[in-house]
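User: Sequence recovery, please. Input:
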């Protein structure tokens, strides 16, 4: 497991509750390291996060804290995730719930959604994907400030985080799921150098193993799709990492292609 690294921008405070206070999240997983990793990443987003490693503890915390969103592992040591969902919804009927499921447990995913779960991700997962899905759930639930914008814009590059549509200079760009998550992270941190370690922590699954060469590979894939035949936006800062900036932006002139 890689150690979580704070985004270069620090906490983003634009995504808040309607009254301007921090989003309140509850993360429930019986793997303490994974639960703390998720909690740490969400705290970097500026959220208030509580954690629980058992179903009974999760129900107690949910009743006490009234979270805006819950990340809930299906497999817990005492209660099933579905039973935890039922008990939480008994006192907090509208809270959005994102299930964490095993990669091959199709029946768990179906059961979770049938029981009232709002969405799911499979383990191992991308941390950016979890954040994006939670933000989408909160928007749909009306729990966030109305000013929240789900479209990222850097120069002539546009990304709709909900529809997963990307375009440059008005031309559609087709990306794989991993390419999309990598570009999303770069676009959320424009003109800032992001190290390979930061990118691994935020884009790849929590137990990926820290192989930095995969970052180089996917940056090359993105360049072929984003920069091909156009002024470059994705730059390498030797010995440090990568940055994304508008093509006409003179800042970061020390960066190399």
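Assistant: Recovered sequence (257 residues):
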């Amino acid at each position: 497991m890689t150690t979580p690294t704070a985004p270069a921008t620090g906490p983003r405070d634009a995504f808040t509750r309607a009254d301007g206070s921090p989003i309140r999240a509850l993360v429930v997983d019986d793997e303490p390291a994974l639960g703390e990793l998720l909690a740490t990443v969400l705290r970097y987003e500026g959220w208030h996060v509580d954690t629980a490693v058992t179903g009974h503890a999760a129900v107690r915390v949910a009743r006490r804290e009234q979270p805006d969103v819950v990340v809930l592992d299906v497999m817990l040591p005492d209660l099933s995730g579905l039973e935890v969902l039922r008990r939480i919804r008994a006192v907090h009927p509208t809270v959005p719930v994102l299930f964490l499921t095993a990669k091959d447990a199709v029946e768990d995913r179906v059961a979770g959604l049938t029981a009232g779960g709002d969405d799911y991700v499979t383990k191992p997962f991308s941390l950016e994907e979890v954040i994006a899905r939670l933000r989408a759930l909160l928007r749909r639930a009306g729990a966030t400030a109305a000013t929240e914008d789900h479209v990222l814009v850097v120069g002539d590059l546009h990304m709709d985080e909900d529809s997963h549509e990307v375009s440059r200079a008005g031309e559609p760009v087709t990306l794989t799921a991993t390419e999309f998550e990598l570009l999303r992270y770069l676009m959320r941190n424009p003109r800032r150098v992001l190290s390979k370690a930061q990118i691994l922590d935020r884009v790849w699954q929590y137990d990926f193993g820290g192989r930095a060469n995969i970052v180089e590979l996917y940056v090359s894939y993105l360049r072929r799709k984003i920069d091909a035949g156009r002024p470059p936006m994705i730059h390498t800062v030797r010995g440090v990492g990568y940055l994304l900036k508008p093509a006409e932006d003179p800042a970061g002139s020390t960066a190399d292609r």
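Residues 43 and 129 are 16 Å apart (CA to CA).
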